[in-house]
Amino acid sequence: MVRENSSSNTLEERNKEKDFINKLVKQITGLIPNAIHILEDLEKEYRIARGKTNIERRKRNARTPWKIIHSKFSEKTLTVKVTPYNTSRTCL
User: Fold this and answer.
1) Which of 6, 13, 51, 75 has its CA 20 to 30 A from that of 30?
2) CA angle (39, 43, 48) in 5-degree steps
């Protein structure tokens, strides 16, 4: 009985996550319509690697489904994925 409840709970959590991602992408694409969105193609290991960031931020980045967010962006609008090399130093 507990198993059924926990599986429906995870299904509910996944649905909330999908709903949040859809709303986020819709809101961002609505703010800047007819634009090309440029996203860095970062690997998850770089986001959660030990470094200057604190542990809470690394955990939050580890839980975030970045690939799903990128795919939703590419479904809704024109996107360009760029390599992360020197992107913080250059602007288009």
Assistant:
1) 13
2) 115
6 lies in some domain: yes
Tell whether 87 is covered by a domain.
no
For residue 63, report the phi and psi dihedrals to the nearest 5 degrees: -80, -20
- Domain of 45 in residue numbering reads as 2-82
The DSSP string of 7-29 is HHHHHHHHHHHHHHHHHHHHHHH
What are 81's two structure tokens?
Answer: 């994925």
Instruction: Give the span between the Cα atoms of 42 and 38, in whole angstroms.
Output: 12
Q: Residue 69 in contact with residue 21, Cβ under 8 Å?
A: yes
pTM of whole model > 0.85?
Answer: no
Q: In this predicted model, what pLDDT tens digit does every residue of 10-32 receive, in sequence order?
A: 888 888 889 999 999 999 999 98
